[in-house]
Amino acid sequence: MRTYNVILLFIVACIGGIVLFFTCKYAYESKLSILKQKAKSTFIRAVNQEVEGRNVAGPLVIAFPDIANMKVAELPDSVSIVDSIGMYKVKLDKEKHYNNITTDTNARLFHSIAFKEHPIQLDSLNLIWKKYLNEAGVSMETALYVSVLDRYGNVTSASTSYSGWRKCSNLVSIVSIGYACEIEVMAYLHYSVWNIIYMEIILGLLIYIVCMYVIYKIGLFIKYKIISIRDKEVIKHPVVKIVKEMKGSSSIRSYKLHEDFIFHADQNLIEFKGQQQILQPQSSKLLELFLRMEETGYVLKNSDISKTLWSDGSVSNDRIYKAVARLRSNIKELDSSIEIKKCVDGYQLVL
Questions:
Q1: How far is it, in rounded angstroms, from Cα 183 to Cα 225?
Q2: 317 near 309, Cβ under 8 Å?
Q3: Is 43 left (phi over 0), alpha (psi -120 to 50) or beta?
Q4: Quick one: which of 15, 147, 295, 305 could link to 157 by a disulfide (CB 3.0–4.6 Å)?
Q5: For 203-218, how does the pLDDT look when each residue is reduced to its tens digit (9 = 90+)?
Q6: Which DSSP category does 244 fall into?
Q7: Where are the alpha helices (DSSP H) in the chain?
């Protein structure tokens, strides 16, 4: 493969790779957003099921009235709570306050007392969450991490036994339960780029390969078209030497320019469809000189012509022009499809 083709293939592959990357990135972010929404909604359902299993009665004191939207309310610094031990104040954490599973302040106080007497069973909650996830069409490993803040500001934590892969990137939801002495539960899913968009990756790679092949072929086609436009005068039909053999001290040299045109160099004769025409020795020598320049596209420089036809140096541009014009005229009398064109510092035989 030529260097140009390698460069073209590399450029096409790079551009296609960039397009594939951003397409997969967009698909991944979209599907991950949907996955996290499902995970959060099903996790809230699981927590609600846990909450419904508690039954608590007792005196409750709230520091401010219930509102529909907690984020637009003016949040106090602390809340006063009365339980069996007595009344005490606990400082409110804004982040946990806004992440609570309910905006009902009475319900929050009930939750605090309920989960104090009957702590969350993580394995049980995790199984409930996994069941809801499966119902939502999500089949992945799950893990939970819980931290509990008591009235004295002490924090205790626990996690499910199979959460070794748990990390920040797999966190899908954080909820708080209770009021002031919150229980914070973090929910994790064991997902990766592959198990979220594996179908998109496989399909994208197939499309990428097909598109790159098509674009590469189109690029090559355009390249050859441009070359053909730029080099209209470059000969595409090889000159085939028919006979070359020795007879005594002379050689027989015949060239087939195309199907019906044959040049017998040894006889100074051109033949076309049965018609023959004798060339002057100089014209015959010039035509054979053209045919020997196949590697250069049958291009002869003025210097090449002068060295061959006028070895004594008695040459001028006018004499070269007349010699070429004479050969051109001889050929045209038999076959007008063959031309001799002027090019930069020379001439070219165009078949």
A1: 72
A2: no
A3: alpha
A4: 147
A5: 888 888 888 888 878 8
A6: E
A7: 3-52, 94-98, 105-117, 122-135, 193-230, 281-291, 302-309, 317-334
* Paired tokens of 191: 């997902």
pLDDT at 285 (0 to 100) = 92
Q: What pTM value is reported for the model?
A: 0.49
In this structure, are residues 47 and 177 in contact, taking their beta carbons and an 8 Å threshold?
yes
For residues 323 and 309, the answer to whether their CB atoms sit within 8 Å is yes
Say which residue the tokens 């005196």 belong to.
59
Residue 73, CB-side half-sphere exposure with 13 Å CA sphere: 17
Residue 279: name the closest of 262, 302, 303, 300 by CA: 262
Q: Which of 187, 46, 64 is nearest to 127 (CA)?
A: 46
Distance CA 17, CA 10 (A): 10
CA distance 282 to 10: 51
Q: Is residue 134 over pLDDT 50?
A: yes
Q: Which residues contact 105 (CB under 8 A, 6 or more apart)?
A: 62, 64, 65, 66, 179
Averaged pLDDT, 9-21: 84
- The amino acid sitting at 116 is K
Residue range 225-275, pLDDT digits in tens: 776 664 443 334 444 455 444 444 456 788 888 778 888 888 899 988 888
Joined tokens for residue 307: 């060295």
Mean pLDDT for 54-82 is 50
Banded model confidence at residue 67, pLDDT cuts 50, 70, 90: very low
